[in-house]
C-alpha cells in the first residue's frame, strides 16, 4: 500500500540464497506498491549480537555492578545507547510493518538476529514495566516472521519428530513480538527449500510475493495463552 | 561424583550477578565432589556469536554460493573450523554433563549463547543427517539448563500472561539439546531473582547447590513430542 513503511530485518550470509530471494521479492513487491522499504542486512552490517557494556556510551549508572537491562534502559532514556542500536530503533519507530527474514537455527533465530532482538528492543523503547504484551510500546505496528526450515513440513507436525511448528513460534511471536506490543501477522514458513526442486523453490518465492500483494488486508493472529495451544 | 567431567557454558556479563553466584556454587560443589569442571565464560571470552565465512579456515567448498551449514560440515570433517569452535567442541567431547547457565532473554538464550549453539553444535560434530534426536552424536552426555527469569513463576503458569514455562523450554531442550542426542536433566529455573529479597536469592542459590549433590543420580526427562505438552 502506498505510503506504508516496511522494515525487513534480514539474517542470511548469502545474497543468492533462498532467504535472499524471499527478501528480494519482498523489497520488489512492496516497493512496487509505493511502500518505503528499508532492509537491515545484519551479516552485511556485521551487526553486533552481544549485549555488553559497550552498548552504553559514557558513564554507566552503577559502575560496581553491571546489570545490562537496567543500564540499557537508563541509556535509552538519556539517548546514550550506541549508534547501531539507535539507528535500528529509528527504523522500527518509522515502520508500519517489520518483517523478519531468516533461516530457523535450532528452532529459533540465528544468533545475529537474536542479538538484534536483545539489543534493539530494550526497556524504554519497546516496552516498560508495566507496559508490555497488549500494552507494549510497538502496539501500532505489525510484525511478521518469514522463515525457512531445514526440516520438512511432515517433521513439524504434532505427530512428527519436531512437533507442531507453532510450538517453536511461541517464544518468537508471543514471548518477544507480542511482549513489545506488535500485532503479529501469520508467519510465512517455507519448509525445507534445500530439499525442494528449483520449480518448488520458485513456487514458494512466488507464493510469498503473491501474499504480499494483500498483506495490508490481513488480520493479526492471536498469540495469547492458553488458547494458542488449544488448536 | 569423582571422575566426572562437567562443562558449564555461562552467559552473564557481571561476575557478582545471581547467575554468577549460581555458576560459582556449581563450580565449588562439583569440584568438591572430585569432578573436573570447565567453564566457558562467553562474555569474558568475547565469544563470537555470528555464523559466518570466518568460521572456516582456508578454502570453502563452494566459493560461488556460501551455505553456512554445508561449509561448517565440510570444515568440521577436515579439521578446518576456527580454533574457538574447535576448542569448545573438545570441551563438549570431554564432558559427561554440560550445564548452560544464563538469564532468559526473550524466552530464549542471550544471543552470545545462541551463537555458541549455532557454531559449536555443527553437523558432523553434534549430529548428522541421519543421526539426530535419539541418534544424535552427543547421546552419551547429559545437558541441563540453569536459567533465571525476569518474570515471576505466576506469569509462567499455563494461565499466566507468559504461558507455562515448559512452552519456552521446547526449542532449547527438544529442538536443540535432544536433537544432538543429549539426555536432558530437569531444568533449574530460578524465577525473578531481581524481585526477590537477599534471603530468597540465597535460598535459590543454596537449592541449586543442594541439587548438585545428587545430580548424578537423576534420570533424564522426556522431551519427546507430543506427550510433552500433554502434561
TrEMBL record, chains A, B:
Gene3D superfamilies, per the entry: 3.40.50.360
Catalytic reaction equation(s): 1-(beta-D-ribofuranosyl)-1,4-dihydronicotinamide + a quinone + H(+) = beta-nicotinamide D-riboside + a quinol
EC assignment: 1.10.5.1
Enzyme class per UniProt: oxidoreductase
Entry keyword set: Cytoplasm, FAD, Flavoprotein, Metal-binding, Oxidoreductase, Phosphoprotein, Zinc
GO MF term (any one): NAD(P)H dehydrogenase (quinone) activity
GO cellular component: cytosol
Domain Flavodoxin-like fold stretches: 4-212
Listed Pfam families: Flavodoxin_2 (PF02525)
Cofactors that this protein relies on: Zn(2+); FAD
Compartments it resides in: Cytoplasm
Family: Belongs to the NAD(P)H dehydrogenase (quinone) family.
Function: The enzyme apparently serves as a quinone reductase in connection with conjugation reactions of hydroquinones involved in detoxification pathways as well as in biosynthetic processes such as the vitamin K-dependent gamma-carboxylation of glutamate residues in prothrombin synthesis.
Oligomeric form and interacting partners: Homodimer.
Name of the molecule in the record: Ribosyldihydronicotinamide dehydrogenase [quinone]
Species annotation: Suricata suricatta (Meerkat)
Amino acid at each position: 500500500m502506498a505510503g506504508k513503511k516496511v522494515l525487513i530485518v534480514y539474517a542470511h550470509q548469502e545474497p543468492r540464497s533462498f532467504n535472499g530471494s524471499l527478501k528480494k521479492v519482498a523489497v520488489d513487491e512492496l516497493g512496487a506498491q509505493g511502500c518505503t522499504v528499508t532492509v537491515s542486512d545484519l551479516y552485511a552490517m556485521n551487526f553486533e549480537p552481544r549485549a555488553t557494556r559497550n552498548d552504553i556510551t559514557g558513564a554507566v549508572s552503577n559502575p560496581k555492578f553491571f546489570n545490562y537491562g537496567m543500564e540499557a534502559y537508563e541509556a535509552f532514556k538519556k539517548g546514550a545507547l550506541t549508534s547501531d542500536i539507535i539507528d535500528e530503533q529509528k527504523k522500527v519507530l518509522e515502520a508500519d510493518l517489520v518483517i523478519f527474514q531468516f533461516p530457523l537455527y535450532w528452532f529459533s533465530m540465528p544468533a545475529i538476529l537474536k542479538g538484534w532482538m536483545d539489543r534493539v528492543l530494550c526497556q524504554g523503547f519497546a516496552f516498560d514495566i508495566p507496559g508490555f504484551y497488549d500494552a507494549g510500546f510497538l502496539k501500532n505496528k505489525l510484525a511478521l516472521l518469514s522463515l525457512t526450515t531445514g526440516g520438512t513440513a511432515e517433521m513439524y507436525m504434532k505427530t512428527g519428530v519436531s512437533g507442531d511448528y507453532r510450538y517453536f513460534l511461541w517464544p518468537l511471536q508471543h514471548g518477544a513480538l507480542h511482549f513489545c506490543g506488535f500485532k503479529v501477522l501469520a508467519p510465512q514458513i517455507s519448509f525445507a527449500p534445500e530439499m525442494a526442486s528449483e520449480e518448488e523453490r520458485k513456487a514458494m518465492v512466488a507464493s510469498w510475493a503473491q501474499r504480499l500483494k494483500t498483506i495490508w488486508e490481513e488480520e493479526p493472529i492471536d498469540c495469547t495463552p492458553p488458547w494458542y495451544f488449544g488448536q
